[in-house]
């Protein structure tokens, strides 16, 4: 973020994580659904906490320099061959309740 603002980039997009909101929702139930940007954050791991800190850093860099910064809270990034690991979820939706059924894909070109 420091480099992006020093280079006067027009915008910055970076990868955050859905875990910032407390996934897998075992200890803290979601405050509401669907989840939006205003949902309370309940990081449950050091990785999730680092993403929360990164999101706050982005807010402060935007406040200070005005650079638009977007953090995408990705969910389940999988390779095309990972379908088998999630095949049972199509038959039993309760298997995906831990992240409110979110799913993202990375497609190869």
Task: Note down, in words, how this protein is organized.
This protein is an alpha+beta fold and 109 residues long. It has a single domain, classed as NAD(P)-binding Rossmann-like Domain (Rossmann fold). 23% of the residues lie in helices and 7% in strands. The protein contains two helices and two strands; from the N terminus they run H-E-H-E. A two-stranded parallel ribbon has the order 1-2. The protein is globular and about 50 Å long. The two termini are 29 Å apart. The C terminus is likely disordered.
- Poorly predicted runs of 5 or more residues: 104-109
The CATH topology corresponds to Rossmann fold
Our Rg estimate from Cα atoms comes to 16 Å
Kindly state the number of beta strands.
Answer: 2
Reconstruct the topology from this structure:
Layout: H1 2-6, E1 12-15, H2 46-65, E2 69-72
Parallel strand pairs: 1-2
Question: What key phrases describe this protein's structure?
Answer:
single chain; 109 residues; alpha+beta; Rossmann fold; 2 helices; disordered C terminus
Short description:
With 109 residues, the chain is of the alpha+beta class.
